[in-house]
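Before surveying the methods themselves, let us examine one representative protein, pairing a chain with its fold in C-alpha coordinate form.
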Amino acid sequence: MINQHSDNLLNLQLKKTSVEDYKFGWFDWFCLWYPPGWLILFNRHWQHYHKDPDGWNWLEYGLFLIPCGFYLALFIRWLRLGCRSPRRQIGEFDPNYQKAFRDEIIAPIVKYYFRGELHKIENLPQTGSMIVTMNHAGMCFPWDFLTLGYLLSKARGWLVQPIAGVSLFDHHWIAWWLPPGWSKVLGGVRAELNDFKTVMQERKILLYAPEGLRGPRKGWVKRYQLERFDLSFLQLSQRYQISILPVVCIGNENLHPWTLNIRKLQRLFNLPFLPISPLMPLFILFPSMGVWAMRSRLRYFIQPLCTTELDGEETKRAEGYRKAQQLREKLQSQINQLLSLKIKSEQQVQKT
Protein backbone atom coordinates (compact mmCIF):
# COMPACT_ATOMS: atom_id res chain seq x y z
CA MET A 1 0.00 0.00 0.00
CA ILE A 2 1.35 3.40 -0.99
CA ASN A 3 2.89 5.46 1.80
CA GLN A 4 2.28 2.68 4.35
CA HIS A 5 5.79 3.05 5.74
CA SER A 6 5.51 6.85 5.89
CA ASP A 7 2.09 6.59 7.57
CA ASN A 8 3.52 4.29 10.26
CA LEU A 9 6.38 6.74 10.74
CA LEU A 10 3.90 9.59 11.19
CA ASN A 11 2.04 7.59 13.85
CA LEU A 12 5.29 7.06 15.75
CA GLN A 13 6.16 10.74 15.51
CA LEU A 14 2.73 11.80 16.75
CA LYS A 15 3.01 9.48 19.74
CA LYS A 16 6.32 11.07 20.68
CA THR A 17 4.83 14.54 20.96
CA SER A 18 4.09 15.85 24.44
CA VAL A 19 0.72 17.24 23.34
CA GLU A 20 -2.26 14.96 23.84
CA ASP A 21 -4.56 14.22 20.92
CA TYR A 22 -7.33 16.73 20.32
CA LYS A 23 -10.67 15.43 21.60
CA PHE A 24 -13.77 16.36 19.62
CA GLY A 25 -15.98 17.42 22.54
CA TRP A 26 -19.47 18.81 23.05
CA PHE A 27 -18.46 22.36 22.11
CA ASP A 28 -16.97 21.10 18.83
CA TRP A 29 -20.21 19.27 18.03
CA PHE A 30 -22.08 22.49 18.75
CA CYS A 31 -19.78 24.39 16.38
CA LEU A 32 -20.28 21.73 13.70
CA TRP A 33 -24.04 22.13 13.69
CA TYR A 34 -24.07 25.90 14.27
CA PRO A 35 -22.61 27.43 11.07
CA PRO A 36 -20.84 30.47 12.64
CA GLY A 37 -18.78 28.04 14.71
CA TRP A 38 -16.85 26.38 11.89
CA LEU A 39 -14.07 28.96 12.00
CA ILE A 40 -13.73 28.24 15.72
CA LEU A 41 -13.12 24.55 14.96
CA PHE A 42 -10.18 25.32 12.69
CA ASN A 43 -8.52 27.82 15.03
CA ARG A 44 -9.06 25.84 18.25
CA HIS A 45 -7.49 22.75 16.72
CA TRP A 46 -4.49 24.75 15.51
CA GLN A 47 -4.01 26.35 18.93
CA HIS A 48 -4.09 22.91 20.55
CA TYR A 49 -0.91 21.93 18.70
CA HIS A 50 0.73 25.33 18.10
CA LYS A 51 1.58 28.38 20.15
CA ASP A 52 -0.30 31.25 18.55
CA PRO A 53 -0.26 34.38 20.75
CA ASP A 54 -1.73 36.45 17.90
CA GLY A 55 -4.65 34.06 17.45
CA TRP A 56 -8.27 34.37 18.53
CA ASN A 57 -9.20 33.90 22.20
CA TRP A 58 -12.29 32.62 24.02
CA LEU A 59 -13.97 36.01 24.37
CA GLU A 60 -13.64 36.56 20.64
CA TYR A 61 -14.86 33.04 19.86
CA GLY A 62 -17.99 33.73 21.87
CA LEU A 63 -18.65 36.87 19.84
CA PHE A 64 -18.50 34.82 16.60
CA LEU A 65 -21.74 33.16 17.64
CA ILE A 66 -23.95 36.25 17.86
CA PRO A 67 -25.15 38.45 14.97
CA CYS A 68 -22.48 40.99 13.95
CA GLY A 69 -20.34 39.84 16.89
CA PHE A 70 -17.48 38.93 14.55
CA TYR A 71 -16.92 42.61 13.77
CA LEU A 72 -16.58 43.41 17.48
CA ALA A 73 -14.28 40.41 17.95
CA LEU A 74 -12.15 41.64 15.05
CA PHE A 75 -11.86 45.09 16.61
CA ILE A 76 -11.01 43.67 20.06
CA ARG A 77 -8.33 41.43 18.56
CA TRP A 78 -6.87 44.36 16.60
CA LEU A 79 -6.62 46.40 19.81
CA ARG A 80 -5.14 43.43 21.68
CA LEU A 81 -2.41 43.09 19.03
CA GLY A 82 -1.46 46.74 19.37
CA CYS A 83 -3.47 48.00 16.40
CA ARG A 84 -1.67 45.79 13.87
CA SER A 85 -2.41 42.73 11.76
CA PRO A 86 -1.54 39.20 12.96
CA ARG A 87 2.03 38.21 12.25
CA ARG A 88 2.39 36.30 9.00
CA GLN A 89 4.45 33.15 9.09
CA ILE A 90 5.68 31.06 6.18
CA GLY A 91 4.79 27.54 7.21
CA GLU A 92 6.04 24.30 5.68
CA PHE A 93 4.02 21.19 4.94
CA ASP A 94 3.64 19.20 8.17
CA PRO A 95 2.35 15.65 7.50
CA ASN A 96 1.93 15.11 11.25
CA TYR A 97 -0.44 18.02 11.60
CA GLN A 98 -2.23 17.18 8.36
CA LYS A 99 -2.95 13.70 9.74
CA ALA A 100 -4.11 15.07 13.10
CA PHE A 101 -6.38 17.64 11.44
CA ARG A 102 -7.70 15.00 9.07
CA ASP A 103 -8.53 12.48 11.80
CA GLU A 104 -9.74 14.88 14.48
CA ILE A 105 -11.59 17.62 12.56
CA ILE A 106 -12.19 16.59 8.95
CA ALA A 107 -13.35 13.05 9.82
CA PRO A 108 -16.54 14.00 11.74
CA ILE A 109 -17.36 16.76 9.22
CA VAL A 110 -17.06 14.37 6.26
CA LYS A 111 -18.89 11.51 7.99
CA TYR A 112 -21.82 13.36 9.55
CA TYR A 113 -22.16 16.54 7.50
CA PHE A 114 -20.95 16.01 3.93
CA ARG A 115 -21.54 12.23 3.99
CA GLY A 116 -18.63 11.64 1.63
CA GLU A 117 -18.57 8.44 -0.43
CA LEU A 118 -16.01 6.89 -2.79
CA HIS A 119 -17.43 4.90 -5.70
CA LYS A 120 -15.66 2.62 -8.20
CA ILE A 121 -12.82 2.07 -5.75
CA GLU A 122 -11.57 -0.74 -8.00
CA ASN A 123 -10.12 2.03 -10.22
CA LEU A 124 -7.88 3.26 -7.38
CA PRO A 125 -4.25 2.19 -7.92
CA GLN A 126 -2.34 0.71 -5.02
CA THR A 127 1.01 2.40 -5.61
CA GLY A 128 2.68 5.29 -7.38
CA SER A 129 2.50 9.07 -7.46
CA MET A 130 -0.19 10.71 -9.58
CA ILE A 131 -2.21 13.82 -10.33
CA VAL A 132 -5.79 13.41 -9.09
CA THR A 133 -8.05 15.69 -11.14
CA MET A 134 -11.58 16.61 -10.10
CA ASN A 135 -14.42 18.87 -11.21
CA HIS A 136 -14.45 21.75 -8.72
CA ALA A 137 -17.65 23.61 -7.83
CA GLY A 138 -19.64 25.11 -4.98
CA MET A 139 -18.38 28.72 -4.94
CA CYS A 140 -17.27 28.34 -1.32
CA PHE A 141 -14.39 27.06 0.83
CA PRO A 142 -12.95 24.01 -1.07
CA TRP A 143 -14.76 21.32 0.89
CA ASP A 144 -15.02 19.07 -2.15
CA PHE A 145 -11.18 19.00 -2.24
CA LEU A 146 -10.76 18.41 1.50
CA THR A 147 -13.36 15.65 1.51
CA LEU A 148 -11.76 13.82 -1.41
CA GLY A 149 -8.31 14.12 0.19
CA TYR A 150 -9.69 12.62 3.40
CA LEU A 151 -11.45 9.74 1.62
CA LEU A 152 -8.35 8.88 -0.41
CA SER A 153 -6.24 8.89 2.75
CA LYS A 154 -8.65 6.48 4.43
CA ALA A 155 -8.87 4.20 1.39
CA ARG A 156 -5.15 4.03 0.56
CA GLY A 157 -3.25 5.79 3.32
CA TRP A 158 -2.17 8.52 0.91
CA LEU A 159 -0.83 11.93 1.84
CA VAL A 160 -2.60 14.17 -0.66
CA GLN A 161 -1.53 17.76 -1.35
CA PRO A 162 -4.11 19.98 -3.08
CA ILE A 163 -3.31 22.79 -5.48
CA ALA A 164 -4.80 25.97 -3.99
CA GLY A 165 -5.31 29.47 -5.34
CA VAL A 166 -2.69 32.00 -4.32
CA SER A 167 -5.35 34.06 -2.52
CA LEU A 168 -5.79 31.23 -0.01
CA PHE A 169 -2.18 31.86 1.07
CA ASP A 170 -1.72 35.61 0.63
CA HIS A 171 -5.03 37.46 0.92
CA HIS A 172 -5.02 39.85 3.89
CA TRP A 173 -8.43 38.59 5.00
CA ILE A 174 -7.01 35.08 5.39
CA ALA A 175 -4.46 36.41 7.91
CA TRP A 176 -7.36 37.39 10.19
CA TRP A 177 -9.54 34.33 9.70
CA LEU A 178 -7.14 31.39 9.68
CA PRO A 179 -3.92 30.59 11.59
CA PRO A 180 -0.59 31.78 10.12
CA GLY A 181 0.68 29.49 7.38
CA TRP A 182 -2.34 27.21 7.86
CA SER A 183 -2.87 26.36 4.18
CA LYS A 184 0.80 25.52 3.58
CA VAL A 185 1.14 23.47 6.77
CA LEU A 186 -1.86 21.33 5.77
CA GLY A 187 -0.19 20.54 2.43
CA GLY A 188 -1.64 23.19 0.14
CA VAL A 189 0.49 23.88 -2.94
CA ARG A 190 0.37 27.36 -4.45
CA ALA A 191 -1.15 27.39 -7.93
CA GLU A 192 2.12 28.60 -9.45
CA LEU A 193 4.29 26.75 -11.95
CA ASN A 194 7.44 26.57 -9.78
CA ASP A 195 5.57 25.11 -6.80
CA PHE A 196 3.78 22.68 -9.11
CA LYS A 197 7.10 21.50 -10.57
CA THR A 198 8.65 21.04 -7.11
CA VAL A 199 5.84 18.74 -5.99
CA MET A 200 6.02 16.74 -9.22
CA GLN A 201 9.76 16.24 -8.82
CA GLU A 202 9.14 14.85 -5.33
CA ARG A 203 6.74 12.27 -6.83
CA LYS A 204 3.87 13.10 -4.53
CA ILE A 205 0.11 12.77 -4.93
CA LEU A 206 -1.37 16.06 -6.06
CA LEU A 207 -5.04 17.04 -6.09
CA TYR A 208 -5.76 19.37 -8.99
CA ALA A 209 -8.82 21.13 -10.46
CA PRO A 210 -8.33 21.38 -14.27
CA GLU A 211 -11.01 24.09 -14.46
CA GLY A 212 -9.03 26.30 -12.08
CA LEU A 213 -11.05 29.08 -10.47
CA ARG A 214 -13.41 28.95 -13.45
CA GLY A 215 -14.98 25.93 -11.73
CA PRO A 216 -16.30 27.41 -8.49
CA ARG A 217 -16.73 30.81 -10.18
CA LYS A 218 -19.26 29.55 -12.76
CA GLY A 219 -22.17 29.74 -10.33
CA TRP A 220 -25.45 27.92 -9.96
CA VAL A 221 -26.76 28.19 -13.54
CA LYS A 222 -23.74 26.36 -15.00
CA ARG A 223 -23.17 24.10 -11.99
CA TYR A 224 -23.16 20.89 -14.07
CA GLN A 225 -21.15 22.29 -16.99
CA LEU A 226 -17.40 21.79 -16.95
CA GLU A 227 -15.42 24.87 -17.91
CA ARG A 228 -12.36 24.82 -20.17
CA PHE A 229 -9.51 22.72 -18.77
CA ASP A 230 -6.02 24.11 -18.28
CA LEU A 231 -3.28 22.04 -19.88
CA SER A 232 -0.45 22.48 -17.35
CA PHE A 233 -1.31 19.25 -15.52
CA LEU A 234 -1.09 17.30 -18.79
CA GLN A 235 2.25 18.81 -19.69
CA LEU A 236 3.74 18.06 -16.27
CA SER A 237 2.24 14.57 -16.30
CA GLN A 238 4.08 13.95 -19.55
CA ARG A 239 7.31 15.58 -18.40
CA TYR A 240 7.55 13.60 -15.14
CA GLN A 241 5.84 10.44 -16.41
CA ILE A 242 3.10 10.61 -13.79
CA SER A 243 -0.37 9.18 -14.41
CA ILE A 244 -3.59 11.15 -14.09
CA LEU A 245 -6.47 9.83 -11.98
CA PRO A 246 -9.72 11.56 -12.99
CA VAL A 247 -12.50 11.82 -10.40
CA VAL A 248 -16.07 13.01 -10.92
CA CYS A 249 -17.80 14.63 -7.93
CA ILE A 250 -21.58 14.87 -7.64
CA GLY A 251 -22.97 17.02 -4.84
CA ASN A 252 -20.35 19.77 -4.63
CA GLU A 253 -22.64 22.04 -6.67
CA ASN A 254 -24.91 22.19 -3.58
CA LEU A 255 -22.25 23.48 -1.18
CA HIS A 256 -23.38 27.07 -1.79
CA PRO A 257 -26.54 26.90 -3.93
CA TRP A 258 -28.35 29.56 -5.98
CA THR A 259 -25.19 31.64 -6.44
CA LEU A 260 -23.97 34.02 -9.09
CA ASN A 261 -20.63 35.76 -9.36
CA ILE A 262 -20.50 39.51 -9.97
CA ARG A 263 -17.06 40.05 -11.46
CA LYS A 264 -16.88 43.79 -10.81
CA LEU A 265 -17.48 43.26 -7.08
CA GLN A 266 -15.10 40.30 -7.09
CA ARG A 267 -12.32 42.45 -8.54
CA LEU A 268 -13.18 45.35 -6.21
CA PHE A 269 -12.60 43.16 -3.14
CA ASN A 270 -9.69 41.30 -4.79
CA LEU A 271 -11.34 37.92 -4.25
CA PRO A 272 -11.10 34.77 -6.40
CA PHE A 273 -14.92 34.82 -6.56
CA LEU A 274 -17.72 36.61 -4.71
CA PRO A 275 -20.85 34.43 -4.37
CA ILE A 276 -24.07 36.40 -4.33
CA SER A 277 -27.02 34.29 -3.13
CA PRO A 278 -30.03 34.36 -0.75
CA LEU A 279 -27.60 33.24 1.97
CA MET A 280 -25.58 36.46 1.77
CA PRO A 281 -27.52 38.26 4.58
CA LEU A 282 -26.45 35.46 6.92
CA PHE A 283 -22.81 35.84 5.87
CA ILE A 284 -23.01 39.57 6.52
CA LEU A 285 -24.38 38.96 10.02
CA PHE A 286 -21.94 36.08 10.68
CA PRO A 287 -18.71 36.57 8.67
CA SER A 288 -17.16 33.56 10.43
CA MET A 289 -19.43 31.46 8.19
CA GLY A 290 -16.98 32.11 5.35
CA VAL A 291 -15.55 28.59 5.77
CA TRP A 292 -18.98 26.99 6.14
CA ALA A 293 -20.97 25.25 3.39
CA MET A 294 -24.44 23.78 3.05
CA ARG A 295 -24.92 20.15 4.05
CA SER A 296 -24.58 17.90 1.04
CA ARG A 297 -23.89 14.34 0.00
CA LEU A 298 -20.53 14.36 -1.75
CA ARG A 299 -20.13 11.32 -3.98
CA TYR A 300 -16.86 10.71 -5.83
CA PHE A 301 -16.66 8.38 -8.83
CA ILE A 302 -13.12 7.19 -9.56
CA GLN A 303 -12.32 6.92 -13.27
CA PRO A 304 -9.62 4.67 -14.80
CA LEU A 305 -6.04 5.98 -14.79
CA CYS A 306 -4.97 7.77 -17.94
CA THR A 307 -1.53 8.66 -19.28
CA THR A 308 -0.51 11.41 -21.68
CA GLU A 309 1.75 11.05 -24.67
CA LEU A 310 2.40 14.29 -26.52
CA ASP A 311 4.27 13.87 -29.80
CA GLY A 312 6.85 16.47 -30.78
CA GLU A 313 8.02 19.63 -29.07
CA GLU A 314 6.50 22.00 -31.63
CA THR A 315 3.01 20.54 -31.42
CA LYS A 316 3.11 19.83 -27.70
CA ARG A 317 1.03 22.81 -26.59
CA ALA A 318 -1.65 22.45 -29.28
CA GLU A 319 -1.85 18.70 -28.75
CA GLY A 320 -1.96 19.16 -24.98
CA TYR A 321 -4.85 21.58 -25.28
CA ARG A 322 -6.71 19.11 -27.50
CA LYS A 323 -6.16 16.23 -25.06
CA ALA A 324 -7.22 18.39 -22.10
CA GLN A 325 -10.52 19.21 -23.79
CA GLN A 326 -10.99 15.55 -24.75
CA LEU A 327 -10.67 14.64 -21.07
CA ARG A 328 -13.14 17.42 -20.20
CA GLU A 329 -15.67 16.04 -22.69
CA LYS A 330 -15.22 12.54 -21.30
CA LEU A 331 -15.81 13.68 -17.72
CA GLN A 332 -18.75 15.84 -18.83
CA SER A 333 -20.31 12.73 -20.34
CA GLN A 334 -19.80 10.90 -17.04
CA ILE A 335 -21.44 13.74 -15.12
CA ASN A 336 -24.43 13.74 -17.47
CA GLN A 337 -24.86 9.96 -17.06
CA LEU A 338 -24.62 10.15 -13.27
CA LEU A 339 -27.14 12.98 -13.13
CA SER A 340 -29.52 11.02 -15.35
CA LEU A 341 -29.26 8.01 -13.02
CA LYS A 342 -29.79 10.28 -10.01
CA ILE A 343 -32.96 11.76 -11.52
CA LYS A 344 -34.35 8.29 -12.36
CA SER A 345 -33.62 7.09 -8.82
CA GLU A 346 -35.39 10.08 -7.29
CA GLN A 347 -38.40 9.53 -9.55
CA GLN A 348 -38.62 5.89 -8.49
CA VAL A 349 -38.50 6.89 -4.84
CA GLN A 350 -41.33 9.37 -5.39
CA LYS A 351 -43.48 6.71 -7.09
CA THR A 352 -43.03 4.33 -4.17
